[in-house]
Amino acid sequence: MKVVRIEKPFEIEVTDLESPKLNEGEALLKIRYCGICGADVASYTGNQPFTTYPRIPGHEFSAEIAYIPENDKGLKVGDVVTANPYFNCGSCYSCRRGFVNCCVSNQTMGVQRDGSFCEYVAMPIERIIPGKGLSAKELALIEPFTISYHAINRATVKKGDKVLVVGAGPIGLFALLSAKAKGAEVYVADILDGRLQLALEFGAAGVINSKNSNLLEESNKITDGNGFDVCVEACGLSETFLSCIDCAAFAANIILIGNGKKETTFLHSIILKKELNIFGSRNSYTSDFNEVIDLVSSGQVDIMKMVSKVYPMDRADEAFKALANNTGDLAKVLVEL
């Protein structure tokens, strides 16, 4: 089979490898589309600390079942599906308590183990998630949607909440959709007008260009000086985390999705003064996948607006280069396998 492999930072090849051999309880999936995640771009640029080389990237994908043994999930050859790509050990303290998304030995496809940028993958049947009639392109967007959906659940967003999402990349936009699905009134801040326009198209109640406006002042205008009930940090930057603390109401919830790479220094007494609840969020559950697929299937959201461009497999290197040099024009980029 053909695979897209990162040989070393900034070097991608389409090469041939043997097709996977199946173990008991596994199905053979023929990959249809792969999305390129920020973690994949980090592996490409050499900024992903968990990646070793060579590495097949990818954990956002759709596939067609090419072979599957008899199973109690009703899955059959020809079904278009996706899968949970976070492999957990099952025995650590987190796993034993049911927090399999934050297994201490977590192996995410495309990072700690080879991923989905190949024509075929072997997948444990228990990890395969039925597509319920969604298209292959839509199913390739489900995994990043679940990242944001899981985070919004962690922050217990509810109907009537005023929510601020800081960062209008794909994860921030999926957070917008997730919070809106809970009945929240959602505002989005970013420094790029193109991304803010997409946020409006996805139903944001309002947007703030924090490069041209004072985010705290705009926050106070929107909330009558009360602050937001929930602030979502989707950039991974120190300054955006601190902005969330400033813009949060007293007794508000702050959820961190952005993966920061720098230390943040601040006077932590503000967290006590405001009695803020600050949550981290990592990966998602299989239940999140099923709920997001139901949400998209219901027609409540049109996630295809998220796709900026689709590349064929033999031009995967162009896709990675485009995202590594993204100035904000690109949201999700898919590669057709």
Can you walk me through this structure?
The protein has helices spanning 38-45, 93-96, 136-139, 142-154, 170-181, 193-201, 215-223, 238-247, 269-274, 286-297, 316-324; strands at residues 2-8, 11-16, 26-35, 60-67, 80-83, 86-87, 107-108, 120-124, 128-130, 162-166, 185-190, 206-209, 228-233, 248-256, 277-280, 307-312, 332-336. 28% of the residues lie in helices and 27% in strands. The strands form four sheets. Strands 3, 4, 5, 8, 9, 16 and 17 form a seven-stranded mixed sheet that branches. The protein has a six-stranded parallel sheet with strand order 12-11-10-13-14-15, sandwiched between helices. The longest helix is centred in the middle third of the chain and has 13 residues, at 142-154. By secondary structure, it is of the alpha/beta class.
Low-confidence runs of at least 5 consecutive residues? none
Q: Give me the count of strands.
A: 17
Mean pLDDT: 96
User: CATH first level of the largest domain: which class?
Assistant: Alpha Beta
- Output the radius of gyration: 20 Å
Shape category = globular
The string of secondary-structure elements, in order, is: EEEHEEEHEEEHHEHEHEHEHEHEHEHE
Question: Strand count, sense and closure of the main sheet?
Answer: 7 strands, mixed
> Structural class, from secondary structure content?
alpha/beta
DSSP strand (E) fraction?
25-35%
CATH topology of the largest domain: Quinone Oxidoreductase, Chain A, domain 1
- Fraction of residues in helices? 25-40%
Terminus-to-terminus distance: 11 Å
How many helices does DSSP assign? 11
